[in-house]
């Protein structure tokens, strides 16, 4: 189906490392250039793959590629839909949602008063990914991944101490540029994600103003609805994964595998 190169990026995230601590000092633009240099060198060393179709993909903050899941794209979309999505899921009460609407005036990204800040803090109180630390730092996991001894002492899901400037506040201009040039794009959303709700992803896709080629419909696996999909002009496909969280393949691997397999084969979902 596909050959996969898995890359920890930016440098010093995951199990990647730099011999010089200053090597960890990268941002959106500089890390993108590092990935580009890596890929050029990798294909130089493995020219037998040059004739294959090539796709860049990732989930969450890796949403700057071209097979992207719950991609962080623009805070005015991503963050502003978290509160309505939490209410739609029944996670927060009508009272909390109404208080957020009253005090935040539709802006859930930049609280303009103390009452707004307090209600957003209530909405954001969650408990997730606790067990990932135990699994990723287990010696068997590190050995299976081939992590070099002595390079990274501890895996952290989010290394907040990295000197990483978020110098690309929105990737929407890049999505427009690439899709207008005809590059195939699959954007998918686990529909139970609150960090980047499917509502926000649908909103920025609609802001591109592409015409609809195949309208909203369910797609199926083993006789069951696995999600919904819609196809736009310029080879842009959007799909949802029923029951999927922020990193959808982690939660619904069978459905995501089928989705990727069909899309890579140029078949309808």
UniProtKB/TrEMBL annotation:
* GO terms for MF: acyltransferase activity, transferring groups other than amino-acyl groups; serine-type carboxypeptidase activity
Q: Which UniProt keywords apply?
A: Glycoprotein, Signal, Zymogen
Q: Does the keyword Signal apply?
A: yes
Per the record, the GO terms for biological process are:
proteolysis; secondary metabolic process
| Annotated signal peptide | none
Under Gene3D superfamilies, the record lists: alpha/beta hydrolase
Q: Which domain of life is it from?
A: Eukaryota
Alphabetized PROSITE patterns for the sequence: CARBOXYPEPT_SER_HIS
Q: Which InterPro entries match?
A: AB_hydrolase_fold, Peptidase_S10, Ser_caboxypep_his_AS
- By its UniProt entry, which Pfam families does this protein fall under? Peptidase_S10
**Family label:** Belongs to the peptidase S10 family.
Protein name, per record:
Carboxypeptidase
Q: Which organism is it from?
A: Triticum turgidum subsp. durum (Durum wheat)
Q: What is the taxonomic lineage of the source species?
A: Eukaryota, Viridiplantae, Streptophyta, Embryophyta, Tracheophyta
């Amino acid at each position: 189906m596909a050959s996969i190169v898995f890359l920890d990026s930016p440098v010093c995230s995951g199990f990647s490392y730099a011999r010089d601590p200053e090597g960890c000092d990268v941002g959106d633009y500089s890390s993108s250039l590092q990935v580009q240099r890596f890929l050029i060198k990798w294909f130089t060393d493995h020219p037998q793959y040059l004739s294959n179709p090539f796709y860049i993909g990732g989930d969450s903050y890796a949403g700057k590629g071209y097979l992207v899941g719950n991609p962080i794209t623009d805070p005015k979309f991503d963050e502003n839909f978290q509160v309505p999505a939490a209410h739609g899921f029944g996670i927060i009460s009508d009272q909390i949602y109404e208080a957020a609407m009253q005090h935040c005036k539709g802006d859930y990204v930049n609280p303009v008063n103390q009452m707004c800040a307090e209600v957003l803090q209530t909405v954001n109180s969650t408990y997730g990914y606790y067990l990932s630390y135990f699994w990723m730092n287990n010696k068997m996991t590190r050995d299976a991944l081939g992590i070099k001894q002595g390079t990274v002492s501890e895996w952290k899901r989010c290394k907040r101490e990295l000197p990483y400037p978020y110098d690309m506040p929105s990737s929407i201009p890049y999505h427009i540029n690439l899709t207008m040039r005809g590059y195939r794009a699959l954007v998918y959303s686990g529909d139970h994600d609150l960090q980047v709700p499917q509502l926000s992803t649908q909103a920025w896709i609609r802001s591109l103003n592409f015409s609809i080629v195949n309208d909203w419909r369910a797609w199926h696996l083993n006789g069951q609805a696995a999600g919904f999909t819609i196809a736009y002009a310029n080879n842009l496909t959007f799909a949802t994964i029923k029951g999927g969280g922020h990193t959808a393949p982690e939660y619904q691997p069978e459905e995501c595998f089928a989705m990727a397999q069909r899309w890579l084969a140029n078949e309808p979902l």
